[in-house]
Amino acid sequence: MNGFINFLIVERKDLMILIWDHIELTMISVFFAIIIGVLLGIFIATVEGTNRPILGLANIMQAVPSLAALGLLVPILGIGSHPAILMVVLYSLLPILKNTYTGIKNINKQTIEAAHGIGMTQFQVLYKIQLPLALPVIMAGVRISSVTAVGLMTIAAYVGAGGLGNFVISGIQTSNNYLMLAGAIPACILALIMDIVMGKLEKAVTPISLSTDPRLLTQEHIKKLKSSQRRVLTIAMISIVTVISIFIFSLISIKDDEAIVVSSKPEVEGVIIGHMIADVLEAHTDYTIKRNLGLGSSSIIYSAILNGDIDIYPEYSGSVYSGVMKKTAPAGTPAEVTFQKVKEFYSENSLVYLDPYGFNNQYSIGILKETADKYKLKTISDLENMKENLVLGCDQEFPHRADGIPALKSIYKNLNFKKYLQFQGTLMYEALLSGDAQVITPFTTDALRMKYDIFILEDDKSALSNYHMATVVSMQALKKFPELKNALNLLVGSISESEMASLNYEVVVNKRTQREVAHTFLIKKGIIKNKL
């Protein structure tokens, strides 16, 4: 417990920034979801024949996986807050939309007829009768959506929007429980606070005659209740206007065409290299460098650089070849051939792929030594002869990548697994140690592969692709910032596989920060100078 408290004290500044980002993004998302959901709910409740298609569409949006929605939105909206907000708005619509429709449609028909009978117009009936009576039901939907939005916003970190998901995702990637808890606990607290606030707001907008027994009401009591409602509504409106104003101002102030944006994917190794790139540029140029590290997948970060949202990021040749180009290199293809094809692909898209850093970090097939001894396994071909099908633990991409399971099965034709368990970050090692999986797919520079002394089966038919990492930079950035390329080339050939594995080990096992590890390595190599 003391260790966690000390961690919070050290990281308090970053934590407060992420908490504010999370509150800001959530409130804006809920605000727009309420406006759209209520208006659409009124529309389908008053216009016959529109409820089924619109509610059906809302149900479909709710069924689409949130990460898939983000991936689809990034090429259109770019990275940052916009796709994250739109994603949460879309996922928050259904409860608000459905409850608005239900609340209005379930009002007693005789009450509506009586209102028309005394000469009220349709708009007056809606404004003075239907909406006030439906408010408790509508607010129940708003309350559900608001609490859900807090948790859903944690995945905004995958597209560089910030929020508490930064800590959660970093904690999973680095096997750091303190980081995960530092992100998860405040998110839970925010969800509880949101529920309480929405409960207060629900009482404030509900007509007094519906919230309290009319027989108990006195003029003084009604006056106090109205005053309390006005106070809550005023605070709510001021809060919403303040948050939206700050958000709009931040969007305007953040825009800096003279800053070079360095990014990376969320894996430990990618973030370390991302910090190295930023450190080298800060040390050897006078340019303004902005770090936006930890974006989602290869396709997301590739879309980001094409859209101009980022300028530089480190990438594996194999990830681009299979994940972006959707190709599979034939078994035994030299690494240089694949790298050159990726280089040409980038060039065709106005991007430059510099020479490799010096290490190859490819997928491998790993097992515990006890398993290897028990079944006498030395090569992947030995798995083909297994009578007992084993469970494979891997990351989310491996079963679907052209150079993952499809490549293994096309070359090792008799290779079968009982099932695939897909994990984020370092969790597949936990599955291996617990016995939930007997085979995993560690990368060659994984820290936990070293820690747990994982036995690597020989890829005797060369099915797995090489993954040489190098810097991707936009041609536009190279033209605009002429000193960029010479500085970036200082990293070429500077990191061996054993060195990269050791850097990962420092982060995952020894719990040092990626930025600290990257900076220390560059000083040790003489690539940058120690300012102290």
β-strand percent reads 5-15%
What is the residue-averaged pLDDT? 84
Helix content: 55-70%
From the 3D structure, determine the CATH topology of the largest domain: MetI-like fold
User: What is the class of the largest domain in the CATH system?
Assistant: Mainly Alpha
Oligomer: single chain
Instruction: Give the name of the CATH architecture of the largest domain.
Output: Orthogonal Bundle
Number of helices: 24
State Rg.
Answer: 28 Å
Distance N to C terminus: 33 Å
Q: What is the SS-derived class? A: mainly alpha
What characterizes the major β-sheet? 3 strands, antiparallel
Output the CATH homologous superfamily of the largest domain: MetI-like
Instruction: Give the beta-strand count.
Output: 10
Features:
532 residues, MetI-like fold, D-Maltodextrin-Binding Protein, domain 2, 3 domains, 3-stranded antiparallel sheet, 3-stranded parallel sheet, 24 helices, 10% strand
